[in-house]
Specification:
The protein contains no helices and 40 strands. By secondary structure, the protein is mainly beta. The strands form 9 sheets. It has a 5-stranded antiparallel sheet, with no helix packed on it. The chain has a 5-stranded antiparallel sheet with strand order 12-16-15-14-13, with no helix packed on it.
Length: about 450
């Protein structure tokens, strides 16, 4: 009997299966051997290498200390620089892509420019040159004229009578100690003059607005809350006026003297000039005829910071130091007090611990620019600080506004040294008795000079 296909023991395979390998449980079918990878085909999208990118940079020179410069590349990618030297933008520029370096923001009193700042990136760029130069000073008359009198109103229609101090609040309003009119005037940023406090008649009365009385107020200070402090020189008092015009007496009495104490128990002798408030709210006053610098706490406690009470020129600590008719004071961010030492033709420095040194000036009257003791002043009166630590000094003997860098280098910012009332740029401008100089939050300067309020801005 013949065997049946597929039956047990049969040697016959199903059709077409004779060459198949045996199937094992879990085994994968074999694959072809791997083909070695060849070079990437650049014509296939997504396989190409990314194009190279390059950094854009260069060198900065002339930037003033404690200032900031903002550079832009192609209108964006802002880079803030605070020191001279090499620089580079953070974002690279792709191969064959244009770059253009421009100045975004210059320091307020400097003009900065770019050279070699544009091109097409085919390699790293390091040849961009940025240079900064000090801006010239443009002097204009904000209000008043060379005619004395009393009149509220806009700009040149307003009249002052020997204004000797200015202060600027956070809104840009300028307060003026209108000394011979016995008033404090207010000047808005657009040049409108009004009377803030004072009746116009010499006296010593607390009160609101025109009900208050002063006697030749010739010094001002302002705190962070907008309270105004007034050196009421004829009354030998320090007065306080709130932003709403409420006037009170902080310290001193109408009797001249040199006593420390609280409130009316303290005595001054012709306090005046620019006053300064530190971060803790303490007020510093030049007590002119006592040849001292006094300190007043917010509670009215008066002490002597420095000065022996005898006119002289001596560095030292506290009462061992000597001044001669100190007129204006300013405080820096570290609490150091700088003094316009009028009678000694010097700018002095007092540390918070009362150590007095000479910051700038030779002591000989003159108008020489220079560093430290090689510079000369002639009757320095007002003094102020900017945000970069530069000191500005008004000078009566050779009417001009001087600038002192944090390193003690003195230059003449504006004023010819000849008395007059001429607007202009730099030394082409003229001042007559520039008693005080102060700054607003943007770095513009204001000068109480003759019977006018002058404004100094950088030339752009």
């Amino acid at each position: 009997m013949a065997a049946t296909a597929g039956a047990p023991g049969s040697t016959t395979s199903p059709a077409g299966a004779a060459d198949d390998p045996p199937s094992l449980p879990g085994a994968s079918p074999p694959t072809d051997p791997a083909v070695p990878a060849g070079p990437t085909d650049p014509s296939v999208p997504g396989d190409a290498a990314p194009p190279p990118s390059y950094t854009i940079g260069g060198t900065l020179t002339g930037l003033a200390a404690n200032t900031r410069l903002v550079l832009l590349d192609n209108g964006g990618d802002a880079l803030t620089l605070t020191a001279n030297g090499t620089f580079g933008f953070a974002a690279p520029v792709a191969f064959n892509t244009a770059y253009a370096v421009t100045v975004g923001t210059s320091p307020w009193w400097q003009n900065c420019s770019v050279s070699n700042g544009s091109g097409t990136a085919t390699a790293d760029v390091s040849g961009v040159q940025v240079s900064c130069l000090d801006a010239q000073a443009q002097v204009s008359t904000l209000a008043g004229s060379n005619v004395s009198g009393f009149a509220d109103g806009p700009g040149a229609t307003a009249l002052f009578n020997s204004p000797e101090a200015v202060r600027v609040d956070a809104s840009g309003n300028v307060y003026v100690a209108d000394t011979a009119n016995h008033m404090i005037r207010k000047l808005t940023p657009d040049g409108m003059v009004t009377t803030f406090v004072g009746s116009g008649t010499a006296g010593s009365a607390d009160g609101i607005g025109a009900a208050a009385q002063f006697n030749e107020p010739d010094g001002l200070g302002i705190d962070t809350e907008g309270n105004l402090y007034i050196a009421d020189s004829g009354n030998n008092e320090i007065r306080k006026a709130t932003p709403t015009g409420v006037v009170t007496t902080l310290a001193g009495s109408t009797t001249a003297g040199s006593a420390d104490g609280i409130g009316a128990a303290a005595q001054f002798n012709n306090p005046g000039g620019s006053m300064a408030v530190d971060a803790s709210g303490n007020l510093y006053v030049a007590d002119i005829n006592n040849h001292k610098i006094r300190k007043i706490t917010p509670d009215g406690v008066v002490t002597t910071l420095a000065g022996s009470g005898t006119a002289g020129r001596l560095d030292g600590t506290g009462v061992a130091a000597q001044f001669r008719l100190p007129y204006g004071v300013a405080v820096d961010a570290s609490g150091n007090v700088f003094v316009a030492d009028y009678g000694n033709n010097l700018v002095r420095k007092i540390t918070p611990d009362g150590v007095v040194t000479t910051f700038a000036g030779s002591g000989t009257a003159g108008s020489a620019d220079g560093a430290g003791a090689s510079a000369q002043f002639n009757g320095p009166s007002g003094i102020a600080f900017d945000a970069s630590g530069n000191v500005y000094v008004s000078q009566l003997g050779n009417p001009a506004i001087r600038k002192i860098t944090p390193a003690g280098v003195v230059t003449t910012l504006a004023g010819s040294g000849t008395a007059g009332l001429a607007d202009g740029i730099g030394t082409a401008a003229q001042f007559d008795t520039p008693w005080d100089v102060q700054l607003d939050a943007s770095g513009n300067l204001y000068v109480a000079s003759d019977h006018a309020i002058r404004k100094i801005t950088p030339v752009r």
